[in-house]
Design brief:
- 67% of the residues lie in helices and 2% in strands.
- The protein is mostly helical.
- Helix 2 crosses helix 3, helix 7 packs across helix 13 and helix 13 runs antiparallel to helix 14.
- The longest helix is centred in the middle third of the chain and has 45 residues.
Length: 536
């Protein structure tokens, strides 16, 4: 039954206690969104249910994961009156009438559980025991299992609190895929607004060689186009792929009878990369963020000079009439903190892409070992979704590196703005004259950081291509993907290296944009089978 776009089941009114009622509803996925095929999105897991309850606007304090886990376990723990209200909203699909009916039903079911528990204590037995007495060995086993269960719950909660890998994965796990991209876009918009308020959104300065250069914040593609377009699109693609893999892709291939078993297997894969997440976080925050800000912005602003080209972050040195040094320090500190956090999330997305590709390959190997021919088509379909999304993310990652290196190279040129720099290079190549010698030898640390971005992105792409496409190298689509990435990387490497680089770069960007919007290169439209369902 459909209610507010979610799968609705009416209260059974069959006299069941809370445990029995909750077990049926959770397994059926009552209150979960309806997919395109008309079926619910799958059963509830403790993590999904806890997140859904915590996202209710009226619920200011959320719900503890351990509390929800206790609902799923075979014990005599019930549910509080406050949580009955939130659970009724989930099962009632946010419909006021249905929520009221479920609130009454859950209250009655909890009362029945309380009565059963009280009667069990009076009889000197546990309501969940198989008989009035329990053999000593069984009692010892039950006690040991209970102790292990409590230990596992505590460990799980500590992992969820302390694990950077789990928290990073949770950023991309939201079923509403626009949350993370919208947050990054909002941060970039706020910085753009602050740059306008401070006056550095569009500013020029007269260089010592007589060149008047545009160095405004809104003219820098590595701060505007990257954070307003490329990274939000990257996060959107990773989020959609992760949700697809956890909800449909992995379930379709692994065939776990218990949804919790599949969820635990996936989270174990995520946790196995904990050291990588910590290392990336350390590099992004301490080195790419703090150290780079101190070296590139703070020290030059304090000393009044430096070995770096003047840009919006050092405008106060040459244009104190536009912005003061204290204002510049505060603005650059905010911008670099935002940049460091955003790039950590970017690299976390790359780690997740790697994890998904590895997980898909590992499950595919197990299917081959078991000679399960019926699932080979499923493996091919899911593998295509994964590799195509990784390909699109790789395009965006290389474009990020191009924007970073392009802005850095422009600052050392003699052109008045970055658009004129690209146009002049193209016209110089056509007319047969050189334009590369007209540069100044400033230090360009962005060249190194952009190389890290491009290299890391391409490594993930190559890994996915080898793991998921090794058996299908006869597929022309894979060769097209590899060729486009190679052309785009060549455009990045030769940016500013010779006259006419903009032509090579333009060709790479054109083909990359085509691959970004059509990663199948028209094969799905020509196929009689049509597009892969539920592909991100």
């Amino acid at each position: 039954m459909l209610n507010n776009g979610k799968f609705f089941l009416p209260p059974p009114n069959d006299g069941s206690d809370f445990k029995e009622t909750f077990k049926r509803l959770a397994a059926a996925g009552a209150g979960r969104p309806i997919e395109n095929d008309g079926f619910p999105a799958g059963p509830w897991t403790p993590e999904l249910l806890a997140e859904a309850i915590s996202q209710i606007d009226a619920n200011k304090i959320g719900v503890d994961l351990r509390t929800v886990q206790l609902w799923f376990q075979e014990n005599d723990k019930g549910i509080s009156s406050a949580n009955i209200r939130w659970l009724a909203r989930i099962f009632g699909c946010d419909d006021p009438v249905a929520t009221g009916e479920w609130q009454v039903e859950l209250s009655k079911a909890q009362a029945r559980l309380t009565t059963k528990r009280r009667e069990g204590r009076k009889a000197g037995t546990n309501v969940l025991a198989a008989g009035p007495e329990m053999p000593p060995t069984a009692a010892a086993s039950t006690t040991s299992s209970s102790a292990e269960l409590v230990k596992d719950i505590g460990a799980t909660r500590r992992v969820r609190r302390l694990s950077l890998a789990t928290r990073s994965e949770a950023l991309f796990s939201c079923e509403f895929s626009l949350n993370l991209p919208a947050s990054v876009f909002a941060g970039a918009t706020a910085l753009g607004f602050l740059s306008y308020v401070t006056g550095i959104h569009s500013a020029t300065y007269d260089r010592s060689d007589g060149v008047v250069k545009q160095i405004g914040f809104l003219w820098a593609p590595n701060w505007t186009f990257v954070f307003m377009v490329l990274l939000p699109l990257f996060f959107l693609l990773v989020t959609e792929l992760l949700v697809f893999w956890k909800v449909k892709g992995r379930t379709k291939l692994a065939k776990h009878k218990d949804p919790m078993e599949g969820h635990r297997a996936w989270m174990s894969n995520v946790e196995s990369s904990s050291a990588t997440y910590r290392a990336v976080f350390l590099v992004c925050i301490l080195f790419a963020g703090l150290s780079q800000w101190i070296e590139v912005c703070l020290i030059p602003l304090m000393n009044g000079n430096g070995e770096y080209a003047i840009d919006w972050g050092k405008l106060a040195i040459v244009r104190p009439d536009v912005i003061s040094v204290p204002e510049e320090v505060l603005f650059t500190a905010s911008a670099y903190l935002y940049m460091a956090i955003s790039f950590y999330i970017f690299f976390a997305g790359l780690i997740l892409l790697y994890t998904i590709a590895h997980d898909c390959w590992r499950i595919g190997r197990s299917l081959e070992d078991e000679a399960m021919g019926n699932q080979q088509s499923d493996l091919n379909e899911v593998g295509q979704v994964v590799i195509r999304t990784i390909f699109r993310c790789t395009i965006l990652g290389v474009l990020v590196g191009i924007c970073m290196k392009g802005q850095s190279s422009y600052l050392t040129s003699t052109e008045k703005n970055i658009a004129a720099w690209l146009i002049n290079d193209m016209s110089s190549a056509i007319q047969g004259r050189s334009s590369i010698n007209d540069t100044i030898g400033y230090r360009t640390p962005t060249h190194y950081s952009s190389l890290l971005v491009v290299t890391s992105t391409c490594i993930v792409f190559l890994f996915g291509l080898i793991r998921l496409g090794l058996a299908n190298w006869s597929d022309i689509t894979l060769w097209k993907m590899a060729t486009i990435i190679a052309l785009l990387v060549a455009g990045y490497l030769f940016t500013g290296a010779f006259t006419g680089f903009s032509i090579l770069l333009g060709l790479g960007v054109i083909f990359a944009l085509y691959g970004l919007f059509d990663p199948g290169f028209g094969r799905e439209r020509a196929s009689e089978k049509g597009p892969i369902p539920n592909a991100p």
